[in-house]
């Protein structure tokens, strides 16, 4: 139990830290690209934190690798590929669209179409329905009684 | 002794809950009024014994009773009293007991304020509420007893996670629970209506206050959590799309949809079966949230109780209540006749669109939150779904909702006139577009999405003002005489606009500087100069601190002296960061002290965060709008009916 607690504590986001002054690249354009890329890469030992936010050692290492690759002239995609080749797709905070992941990406729009269709059908049905008699006399009386304050 | 008393009271709560479930239900089936009448007193009794049990645990924490295992694991004698109290629910067992207490509180509130409810409906509602209490009391007693004693009590405890030792977070869980559990009332009403087979305008009117109350609490709870993340985690993020944040966000979205569809059900007797479905789903998402947090299947910052058996137990509860509810719904929903007729362009149609978009956005959050779990179990792929996905998939849908909101809110019931509504909303739209353009220019074209967000947020805000103006017949002195429901709507919608504005400006316009500073050195950021005056060591009640004195100047004027801190909690062995924040109406300056550097100096992080406060200001407005709406006399019929009823009760003799 105590060990579990310790592991949990280690996994908690340790605040502060994140990008250190000595990591920042001199070239502001490259640095901006590095920040963009880092924000999309997950720190492998953290809980739902990007390497840009995390202060875990591995996150720092990854930030340095990202910058190293950028300085070496890699494109953004090449940098991301470089990291995913070594750590797997787990580090991608924005999952790719390969295979079954398509369901994840299409799920929302598909649901929008479906729900929109049902909604439209409902509206049309209500629009073309003939006005029924409102409340029954009994319900009217009950409502009036309730509304009386 | 008090611990045993608390344990005993909890067992009593279980028994009372069982009786509250069974007796009114039997009474309902047999039409025995006396048995149905048992529901009210039982709900009160359940609140009483659960409250007693909770008080016993609270006392154990306040007096640092280290003979209780739970207190040892989560408290420390040197901890400030506020966090001793907050420690009661800062752990799995205690938070589940708080959950049960709030459930009993809502049941008791329904018993007290539900005087106007028909006896049969009230009996069923309280019976369903009792069954939820029964399930959770059993869950606590059999898997997570908070009153376990230690044979050899230690001298002191292991302390509460220091990140949780914060005023914002001390009250974050109770508010969230009030919201989660408040939705149980909507659920109980839905199940009762399905069993009775009767959903009418009066039913929708009874459900709304409970849903509204739950939604208000959820809004406050979510805002507190987000605010806490902003100032405590040390870099000013306010939303992480963390599974547990999503767990509270999904019920909020569905409760929002339910609030709106219940209006249609009440005023126009349409969308009735959809409203019932939403009520079941809203509570389902609350239970799902509990499952996500408690089981730890989805790793997250918050999952402080990662125990598979508890997870399975909650999953069983989830399957029982939601599965049962949906089955009942499938069997009975067909019998609900829609009555109201409305045109293609009407307030009703706009609310249908509102519901579609809210439900879809909730579905997207749901899909993204559970996808990693699904991928791992079914596809064997270990992957992550993070902020970039949610921003891409959720934000457009929600912005679309925001765009139709101002128009929909001024359309007439039954048959609206789109061109007239458009004409009425034109000034708000023009203002919004102008502000969006201004933002685009000022952010030097850095972010088109930010400018779009500003335009839409401003449109929603001015749209809400326009809505109030139109309701008052364009006469200023009539503004104050508007029904509170109108004010509530205006405030809540305006608040949403304010929040959207804040998020848009903050996301697009944050300035950041990270550097090493020597004491006495000056850094320029935006229009400000930041001086690191000095760094000193100190000691708090239960932590060590390294605190900086930093002066914030604009031109020659000293704006503020800020004290960012690095704290270390020796008992828990954890560091935390306290940012130094100068909050203003239009910007926050946010300073963070980092590590000391080799060769002298300190790492310092400085941010200028424009409109940061608007995010939570908007949330406060939304909650306030809900509150104002809740006090509208039309929603207080139950209380009203109670007043007009003949004096109840007979002398005891």
Number of helices of chain B: 21
Class of secondary structure makeup of chain B? alpha+beta
- Residues in helices of chain A, as a percent range: 55-70%
- The fraction of residues assigned to DSSP E strands of chain B is 5-15%
Summarize the structure.
The complex is a heterodimer of chains A (149) and B (653). By secondary structure, chain A is mostly helical.
Structure, described:
The complex is a heterodimer of chains A (149) and B (653). By secondary structure, chain A is mainly alpha-helical. Chain A folds into 2 domains: 9-91, Cytochrome C biogenesis protein (Helicase, Ruva Protein, domain 3); 101-147. Chain A has 6 helices and no strands. Chain A is elongated, with a radius of gyration of 27 Å. By secondary structure, chain B is of the alpha+beta class. Among the domains of chain B are: 1-160, Four Helix Bundle (Hemerythrin (Met), subunit A); 511-612. Helices cover 64% and strands 11% of the residues of chain B. In chain B, strands 2, 3, 4, 5, 6 and 7 form a 6-stranded antiparallel beta sheet that branches. In chain B, strands 1-10-9-8 form a 4-stranded antiparallel beta sheet. At the A-B interface, α1, α5 and α6 of A face α10, α14, α15, β1 and β7 of B.
